[in-house]
TrEMBL record:
Record key words, sorted: FAD, Flavoprotein, Membrane, Transmembrane, Transmembrane helix, Ubiquinone
Residue runs in coiled coils: none
PROSITE patterns: 2FE2S_FER_2, FAD_FR
Domain 2Fe-2S ferredoxin-type: 243-339
InterPro entries documented for this protein: 2Fe-2S_ferredoxin-like_sf, 2Fe-2S_ferredoxin-type, Beta-grasp_dom_sf, FAD-bd_FR_type, Flavoprot_Pyr_Nucl_cyt_Rdtase, FNR_nucleotide-bd, OxRdtase_FAD/NAD-bd, Riboflavin_synthase-like_b-brl
Organism: Thalassotalea piscium
Name under which the protein is recorded: Na(+)-translocating NADH:ubiquinone oxidoreductase F subunit
Length: 615
């Protein structure tokens, strides 16, 4: 199933891109000028036929006797003069391969279409203001007329649209006119009919392959859907039932029995009983943290297969977020955290950049939570109606959202994880810095979790699970600390920095035994979070160093420009021996991958690199 899932996704990318190209080319076909698109802007529509006395013409039988092996003969007119056109190799359409002999109907002599004759024919077919500039003989395939299989004279004219007239070499037939309008239309025809080999036909090998890819996409989608159904991934709430499940810890010690709904996956069902399993992906099956053992053994999902070996799957290892209580009697919890579910009330909120808000919550029962800096909480986002633009957007920030279209949308319940932005040593508030994920258009929903939380009114309550401690400072450590982040990756790094400074203050130390270096990247200065705060910390504590970096700085910016990881690379040799440095990273996937690659290339060990992934 994993390989079917991968092929399905890649096939959907191919089909999706081509469908987008079909849409764009289809729009063009509806708005284009069809006369211009056919290349007929300067095409003359005069008739070449004129009245002649048949008595003056050479008899047909004489012509046939002179030029043998002809399949057919017809009378044609070129520049008003009669000719006989003998066809030796007939074909269904005029653009197909033919073998002609052109005979002067008055003299009975064979006539060849030379460059001068072709030029005269082209001028006679042309009604524009241009003069002929170039004449050349072209053999098929002809770019402007890919279906034409016969050699032709190309006569170019010096007009505003670069008209070219094509005259067939054997018969003097006007193959057609082409100009900039037609060539543009040909590009869209090529895209629409997938004629990327420019064969002038939609019946191409590529089109046939695309049809098979689309068929495969449909079949794999059907197989995937059936597989999910057989694995119990589709649950209808109306038919939900309660199921008793016996729980055991990793030492096989009984934890009693809980009643779980068949409509809720095991991860969320356990939360109802205040049992939290580690999870950073919100139940998407990507982090692989919520490990359990299920008895009796149930079918493995593709997510299970990605995170467990075949031997583990046979033993019953599964991800709790991927299964429901149906057919589950016993469940062993591999890793249980001390995290609990809490009701949080929003105390205050403010924009700290055009797209990031600082939210401050209080625990509703009045208690304060203790946790290591770098921890996160998993919010339970209820089904609700959302808006694509924040409801309390200040006037000074509206220009940053003017390209976002306002619309309302409905979303289902989900979970989202966000890091705490302040340590718990001297503060009973839970602070988060959350980036509002805007929608590029009305066909894509904004970030459901960020939109919901950042549109909460002060006093509103929301449920959250945690704190979960997975990204924190190694204790005890005398090593230099280097922290690097960007965007909303600021949150856990800010908490770690403040925690270390608070610990130093509590120990009555005026100077830390180790330095702290903070590299932070943003696009513009308005995107720098807590800029004044970190400058103040750097002034107050000479062991703390702040390196703000802008990738799209304006001319007034006096600091570093580029990307944070590049500035780290430039300063790496000045931070001390690499074996005495611990690195903490949080930010976009590209930033962390490039930074880890940089550090490993310089010989930094994996054990010295800690990072908090955006999942």
């Amino acid at each position: 199933m994993p390989w079917i899932r991968k092929i399905h996704k890649w096939a959907s990318v191919v089909v999706g891109i081509q469908f987008l190209l079909w849409l764009l080319s289809g729009i063009y076909f509806n708005v284009m000028d069809h006369t211009k698109a056919a290349g007929n802007t300067y095409k003359s529509h005069t008739h070449q036929k004129s009245s002649v006395s048949q008595a003056q013409l050479v008899e047909l039988k004489t012509v046939l006797a002179t030029f043998k092996a002809s399949n057919s003969i017809e009378q044609t007119f070129l520049l008003g003069k009669p000719y006989y056109l003998l066809t030796h190799e007939p074909n269904l359409y005029k653009n197909f391969k033919h073998n002609y002999t052109l005979v002067d109907a008055y003299s009975g002599e064979q006539v060849n279409i030379n460059s001068d004759f072709a030029k005269a024919l082209a001028i006679n077919s042309y009604s524009g203001p241009g003069k002929t500039t170039k004449i050349k003989l072209v053999n098929p395939p002809i770019d402007d007329f890919p279906k034409e299989k016969n050699a032709a004279w190309q006569v170019d004219f010096s007009d505003d649209i670069n008209t070219s007239v094509y005259v067939e070499l054997g018969s003097g037939r006007i193959v057609g006119h082409s100009d900039e309008h037609k060539r543009l239309a040909d590009i869209f025809f090529m895209i629409h009919f997938m004629d990327y080999a420019n064969e002038g036909s939609f019946n191409s090998l590529l089109m046939i392959m695309f049809a098979f890819i689309t068929l495969w996409l449909s079949l794999t989608g059907l197989i995937w859907t059936i597989d999910l159904g057989l694995r119990g991934q589709y649950q209808i709430k109306f038919f939900a039932k309660k199921q008793g499940v016996r729980l055991f810890d990793k030492h096989q010690k009984s934890m009693g029995e809980v009643t779980l709904s068949s409509h809720t996956n095991l991860l969320d069902g356990l939360i109802e009983h205040n049992i939290a399993l580690p999870s950073t992906c919100g139940g998407g099956g990507t982090c692989g943290r919520c490990k359990v053992m299920i008895n009796p053994i149930v079918n493995a999902t593709s997510a299970d297969s990605l995170h467990f070996s075949e031997e583990e799957l046979q033993q019953g290892y599964r991800l709790a977020c991927q299964h429901f209580s149906n057919d589950v009697k016993d469940m062993t919890l591999i890793d249980i955290t001390d995290a609990k579910k809490h009701n949080l009330a929003l105390k205050s909120c403010r924009f700290i950049s055009p797209h990031i808000k600082e939210l401050r919550f209080k625990v509703c029962n009045g208690s304060s939570l203790t946790y290591k800096a770098g921890a996160f909480m998993r919010f339970l986002i209820p089904a609700a109606k959302g808006e694509s633009i924040p409801c309390d957007l200040p006037n000074e920030l509206k220009s940053h959202w003017e390209d976002v279209e306002f619309f309302e949308f409905n979303h289902l319940a989900c979970t989202r994880s966000y890091s705490l932005a302040e340590p718990s040593l001297e503060n009973d508030e839970l602070v988060f810095t959350i980036k509002i994920q805007a929608a590029p258009n009305t066909t894509v929903l904004p970030g459901v979790g960020s939109s919901y939380l950042c549109n909460l009114m002060v006093g509103a309550e929301v449920e959250a699970i945690g704190p979960f401690e997975e990204f924190f400072v190694k204790e005890p450590s005398k090593n230099t600390m280097v922290l690097l982040g960007a965007g909303s990756g600021m949150a856990p790094l800010k908490a770690i920095i403040e925690e270390q400074i608070q610990k130093n203050n509590h120990n009555d130390e005026d100077k830390s035994e180790c330095s702290i270096h903070f590299f932070y990247g943003a696009r513009k200065e308005c995107d720098l979070l807590y800029e004044d705060h970190f400058y103040q910390l750097a002034d107050m504590h000479k062991y703390f160093h702040y390196y703000p970096t802008l990738s799209q700085a304006d001319e007034n910016w006096l600091g570093a420009t580029g990307y944070a990881q590049d500035i780290l690379g430039l300063n790496l040799d000045n931070l001390g021996p690499l074996e005495n440095i611990d690195f903490y990273l949080c930010g976009p996937d590209g930033l962390m991958k490039e930074t880890i690659k940089l550090l490993k290339a310089r010989g930094v060990k994996d054990s010295a690199i800690a990072f908090d992934e955006f999942v």
